[in-house]
Amino acid sequence: MTLGAVPVFCVLSYFYIDKPLAVHLRSANYNVLQVFSLITRLGVSTGYLVASFLFFLCFRYLNKKEAYAHQALFVFSSIAVSGLLADLLKFLFGRYRPKMLFEQGLYGFTLFHGGYAFNSFPSGHANTITAAAVALYFIYPRFRHFYAVVAILVIVSRLVLGSHYLGDVVAGSYLGILTTLYLKSIFDRKGISLQQPMLQGDGSSG
Fold first, then answer.
1. Confidence (pTM)
2. What are the angstrom distances between the C-alpha of 9 and each of 1, 17, 85, 167?
3. Are 184 and 35 in contact, with CB atoms under 8 Å apart?
4. Which region, left, alpha or beta, applies to residue 37 given φ > 0 means left and ψ of -120 to 50 means alpha?
5. pLDDT tens by residue, 146-173
């Protein structure tokens, strides 16, 4: 699936997949729910934002290691910017969460509506974990499989726990990817490398 096809998939998912999948996942085993309730916490943005910002301050003003400061800033920016965009879209679309379907039979959108029950689209957890995974991939690409597994588990957790529909997590991930790629292009245009310092221009061996 190309990035350009994602919006089309989300529309099709809304009409044909989201509701029946949510109904099916509602019968998940209690033990499975307990496991995913722990995994889903990895999609909360607060810890990533605080840690990356503190690392930025440390490497920028204390240890004076510019390369590491740039890496921390990139991770922070990717999660923060994509998160703000996700929050804006949540308000604009005002999509009912699955619980509204099960409790009140409500399915669809209430534009420009705030509140937890009305901010299902896009998924903030999926957005956060995807932005973090892609950002870290550009810095430490050797762990790409680990990032992918963690991201997938968090995304699936949002479905299993009944917090989001499939279209929500796909859109959240899509937004995280696009935002991080865009920020990477800005860093590239400014000539800021995100690679580990020891990997940059190692010509010491002649």
1. 0.91
2. 9, 10, 20, 8
3. no
4. alpha
5. 999 999 999 999 999 999 999 999 999 9
